[in-house]
Write the structure tokens for this entry.
Amino acid sequence: MSSAGQALKLGMIPADGIGREVLPCAARVLQSTPGAPKFEFVHLDAGFEYFQKHGTALPDATIQSLKNDCDGAMFGSVSSPSHKVEGYSSPIVRLRKELDLYANIRPVIGVHGTKDDDKWVDLVIVRENTECLYIKKEQLDQKGSGNGPVATAIRQISQHASSRIGKKAFEVALARQQMRVKAGIAAQETGKAKVTVCHKSNVLSVTDGLFRTSVRSVFEDDQKSKGGPGRFEGISMDEQLVDSMVYRLFREPHVFDVVVAPNLYGDIISDGAAALVGSLGVVSSVNAGDNFFMGEPVHGSAPDIAGQNKANPIASIRSAALLLEYMGYTDPALKIYAAVDQVIREGKYLTPDLHGKATTTECQDAILKALTN
Ligand code: ATP
Ligand code: MG
């Protein structure tokens, strides 16, 4: 861990496939951003390819270094084998657990049009990362009640996890509002600064009911806070059933600001939302706990294009900016977002997923140039 005045230590985990090509781009951008702190990058191993050579997908040394030496981290991408491989489990799922990174925060930002456009997509999905159906408590009763096998899965929703993800969502909305002000876009102008609670409590009244009331209470308790305005003043809250959420997300994505959802709904709507903006290659995320953050592009290892200098580095570069933003360095983060926006707008150095002809390196270089001009 670095102390005051020293370089920030970032654990870099390229892992598999295009992760190895795009993570170095993110590191170069971080190093070249005016006003960013100095960085010391610590290379760390993980991934399916590492598992095939060494029998583990996440060596203890990686976990220990992240816990004891690093101020933050960046993850590349991991291959997910389509069949069950004995002894293999996903390193990213384990890392989130080990570091208690309970929130997956995924901004979805338009690639076409401009920010003045009132249909501009700029929303963030805050997905709960630790429970719901992902606790993987499944059972198979071979006999059932006489009509053949019956499978059951337990879905766990706790007040603790729901409240803390709710709090995180309101903090994200607050930070976005502050960033808009800093970038010269008043929140009132955009009519945004809002948290939408996504659930299905009309059917799952016990589990989703608890999620809904826990998140709502975070906001309501804040509004009731005595002695002046609450922390989340200026932010509003509404809610949306997950099915109509999907419908609205596809019809009018521009109306959303921050959407908070339990694990499964969050997983589904965030992949769907990525489709709204044209390519997985531009969608970033940060895994957030209370004191530790790990940037991670949303895409996988893309074996179809790995090793060809074709991958879009923007998702990783934006994830690095998100990491900076969550670590409190908003000015350099804004510079990176602006440089990426400029390169997308100019359209000259885009990779094939965005219908351009540029290589990974050329796209990275254009962003570096935009940053320093
Ligand atoms: P994995 O099992 O690692 O998730 P995958 O085959 O599902 O691998 P993804 O990485 O999820 O691959 O990508 C899905 C599709 O999107 C692929 O065709 C891939 O080439 C494309 N893609 C993903 N990321 C990028 C990127 N950064 N730049 C360009 N294309 C990308
Ligand atoms: Mg995939």
Remarks:
- The pocket of adenosine-5'-triphosphate (ligand 1) is lined by residues 18, 77, 79-80, 280-281, 299-305, 311-312, 315, 351, 353 (CB under 6 Å).
